[in-house]
Amino acid sequence: MVISLAIASQKHSPCLVSLLSGMFVCLVLVFSPFSVSKTETRVQLPLTVTGDFRPGGLLFGHIAKDRAIYYRGEQVSVNPRGQFVIGLDRDHEGDLTLRIAQHDGSKGQYRFVIRPREYQIQSIKGVAKKYVSPDPQQLARTRAESARVRASRQHRSLEDAFFDGFIWPAKGPITGVYGSQRIFNGEPRRPHYGLDIAGPIGAEVIAPAAGIVRLAEDLFFSGLTMVIDHGHGLSSSFLHLSEMMIAPGQSVEQGQLIARIGDTGRVTGPHLDWRMNWQLGAVSVRVDPQQLVKMSENKAE
Q1: Taking the model in full, what pTM does it have?
Q2: Domain ranges, ordered by start, for the chain
Q3: Could you tell me what percentage of the chain is helix, strand and coil, using 3-state DSSP and rounding each to the nearest 5?
Q4: What span, in angstroms and rounded, lies between the C-alpha atoms of 231 and 210?
Q5: 260: exposed, middle or buried (Cβ count in 10 Å: 0-12, 13-18, 19+)
Q6: Of 115, 129, 194, 268, which has the maximum CB count within 10 A?
């Protein structure tokens, strides 16, 4: 398999970098500056917000008691310790604006500058034709499956163990990063919203944070797929699995074995595709999982 890479800004103006073999791409993506989180903390009392203030970022905030916070017209869930999360989509434009309702009825508006981000363009050859140009029957199946996946992300449980941090669900070379534009067999596709971790079929997949399994199904494009609800509208999806150990409705703890790496669905080799979504009412965004874990911890035991 041959993969070509380019870099594009958020405006999507590509500039070709190199043509590399699949194995070398793993090394390039691991050390690429475009996949490195740029975490910072910004304070605008009564708000403290920490995270990667770029598109795809997941921001962790804290607010003083007896205050309500709103984003894009929706009230944000806040736990008893005053913690909340805000997700930024891949193509987020403009600054982040949060509105606060004080306990005395007064209101305030707080604005945080969002910095631009660049993405990689990835061309992949050797994908089976049925996954590049599915027939009408396959398209009908995928539409029904997409509806079930969306429904699995609608839960707004009060789970909040994820505020203590995330760990890698699997360990191995990084072969695909969030936001990259995928071109299958010469045909441009939607951006890639996950983090691809290569590994042999049967390698363990563990829960990166505690939560409740909301979906565990065999889907056309993503193969064996599991969705875990971490709480506060935040969920993880695990694609292309070979085996799933947990059923919908069951709770999992961080580090618990939940599945095994596979090559099911639209893939050219075994790997785990880890994706994360943040849902707030009508607001639904895909965030970058790689910003939540340390590259130094992605090492085989």
Answers
A1: 0.81
A2: 2-35+118-297, 39-112
A3: 15, 45, 40
A4: 9
A5: buried
A6: 194
| 249-277 mean pLDDT | 95
pLDDT mean over 243-255:
97
* Residue in this structure with the two tokens 């995270």, named with its chain if needed: 51
Full DSSP string of 152-211: HT-------GGGG----SS-S-EEE-TTPEEEETTEEEEEP-EEEEE--TT-EEE-SS-E
**What average pLDDT does the structure give for the chain?**
83
Share of the chain above pLDDT 70, in %: 80
Q: Which CATH number fits domain 39-112: 2.60.60, 2.70.98, 2.30.30, 2.60.40?
A: 2.60.40
CB-based contact 291:39 (threshold 8 Å): yes
> Terminal CA-to-CA distance of the chain, rounded, Å?
28
Give the pLDDT of residue 266. 82
107-144 pLDDT per residue, tens: 999 999 999 998 877 666 655 655 556 677 777 777 88
pLDDT of residue 286: 95
Using DSSP's 3-state secondary structure scheme, residue 80 falls into coil
Question: CATH topology for 2-35+118-297?
Answer: Glucose Permease (Domain IIA) (2.70.70)
Q: How confident is the model at residue 29, as a pLDDT?
A: 35
166 and 292 Cβ atoms separated by less than 8 Å: yes
Q: Which helix (H) or strand (E) holds 225?
A: strand 223-231
3-class DSSP assignment, residue 289? helix
N residues, the chain: 301
Rounded Cα distance between 156 and 282, Å, is 12
Residue in 295, 238, 273, 242 with CA at minimum distance from that of residue 30: 295
pLDDT, tens digit, 9 for 90 and up, residues 225-235: 999 999 999 99
Residues in Cβ contact with 86 at an 8 Å cutoff, skipping those fewer than 6 apart: 49, 58, 59, 61, 71, 76, 96, 98, 278
